[in-house]
Amino acid sequence: MAVSYKDYYKILGVERSATADDISRAYKKLARKYHPDLNPGDKQAEEKFKEINEAHEVLKDPEKRRAYDTLGPNWQHGQQFQGAPGFENMHFSFNGQDMNGADFSEFFQSLFGGAGRRGGGSPFGPDPFGGFSSRQRRGRDVEAELPLTLEDVVSGGKRSVTVQMSSGPRTLSVNVPAGIREGAKLRLSGQGESVPGGAPGDLFLRVRYLPHGSFKVDGDNIQCDVLLSPWEAALGCKAPVPTLEGEVELNIPAGSSSGRKFRLRGKGLGRPGARGDLLARVMIRVPAQLSDEERQLWEALAAKSSFNPRG
Fold first, then answer.
1. Residues spanned by the domain of 53
2. Nearest to 27 by CA among 51, 3, 2
3. Which residues lie closer than 8 Å to 290 by C-beta, 6 or more apart?
4. Closest CA to 94 of 161, 27, 169, 182
5. Average pLDDT of adjacent 10-residue blocks, the chain of 311 residues
6. What pLDDT sits at residue 73?
7. Domain membership flag for residue 135
8. Do 194 and 227 belong to one domain?
């Protein structure tokens, strides 16, 4: 089967006259773009990354580049290669990493000899960046929910969470930053699934606010209702109001109708020193049943009052 010529200069996007620095810069730019760690599950990016590595493996080395340039597109007419002159028993390495296990194309193998896939090496060739792995075996990352009460969110600190792993449930202690937002993720490095002979994955905990009996959440603000009797609303009073740190007393002025809101600054959610507010909403409740005496008093008030709630 014929093996097609591969233009390594075109693959890296450089001229044939490119310097070693030009080639290195082009390679790093493309390798970062197509690195499999940044394109998980993208087979096209994976193949492109292999192709880029192959081109760089040749063009970065003066001897390999010279052999490649000499033969060019007509390489098959020069000689039937099991290795170009001086490369019969070559052994590739990059930063101390054996390249003989990398996936090179048939063209590369025909041109330079036995650099086939042996010994179970990396399918992606060398890693040009110290921050990326060369696709070593690594355990699966795990994502789970971290349910928190609003009180937990405000106070922060150590919290316990149980996560279901393939090996069974695992209980961990996690440090929750005070004021963390719903939907935020906490990363626990190395706490994901383990894999024999490799590094464990990471655990990502996604924060979920638990429903609260007293408060509704609106961004960094929270809301609650303050229940008043009709006479408390009409005459004014001091009413207890719940907060996330405990109950406080709110001064309700006379003539406060249902729906009126009072703002307690800094009693909401958010980072310490930049917390939102608590909005306490007045809600007037009336007795469901009246004694005879109470009914008479209400009737007397209705007869005396000039107030018209619809006027």
1. 8-112
2. 51
3. 298
4. 27
5. 77 92 92 83 87 90 85 55 40 37 63 49 47 64 95 94 91 94 93 88 95 95 97 96 96 96 96 95 95 95 91 77
6. 65
7. no
8. no
Which residue, 97, 75, 96, is CA-closest to 87?
75
On the CB side of 56, how many CA atoms lie within 13 Å of its CA? 26
Query: To which residue do tokens 């907060």 refer?
Result: 243
Contact 7, 71 (CB under 8 A): no
Residue 311 included in any domain: no
Same domain membership, residue 108 and residue 13: yes
For the residues of 30-86, what is the DSSP string, one character each?
HHHHH-GGGSTT-HHHHHHHHHHHHHHHHHTSHHHHHHHHHHGGGHHHH---SS-TT
End-to-end CA gap in the chain: 95
Whether residues 192 and 234 share a domain: the answer is no
- Residue 29 inside a domain? The answer is yes
pLDDT on residue 282: 97
Q: Are residues 85 and 155 in the same domain?
A: no
The length of the chain in residues reads: 311
Q: Tell me: do 283 and 230 sit in the same domain.
A: yes
Q: Looking at residue 223, which CATH number applies to its domain?
A: 2.60.260.20
Residue 94 near residue 61 (C-beta atoms within 8 A): no
Residue 81 and residue 156 in one domain: no
Residues 199 and 272 in one domain: no
Q: Which two tokens stand for residue 308?
A: 């018209």
How many folded domains does the chain comprise?
Answer: 3
- Say if pTM beats, i.e. exceeds, 0.85: no
Check: CB of residue 86 under 8 Å from CB of residue 39: no
* Residue 137: predicted pLDDT: 79
Judge whether 33 lies within some domain: yes
Provide the CATH number for the domain around residue 43: 1.10.287.110
**Cβ-contact 176, 148 below 8 angstroms:** yes
Contacts of residue 181, defined as CB under 8 A and 6 or more positions apart, other chains included, come to 207, 269
